[in-house]
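<amino_acid_chain>
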Amino acid sequence: MKFEKRDAILIAGLLLFMIGLIPFMSPFYAVIVVSLMYFGIKFYVGKRKQSIEKDVGEGLCMECGSPVKNKKCPNCDAKE
């Protein structure tokens, strides 16, 4: 999990969420909840990005948009 530019926005949002939780629970538990949320979101986004990269493969066909495999489009090359 590397730090990206949009992580700053995530951290800022979670800090504001933590400030909102403090009146309802102790600051210690608010920090735990927010840190679990941060790592949960990072884990979910990482898995989602990995599945998208797996589906895309080597790239996308410019004609039909399907994933290219073995440098050939399965849809367009089958028609020819």
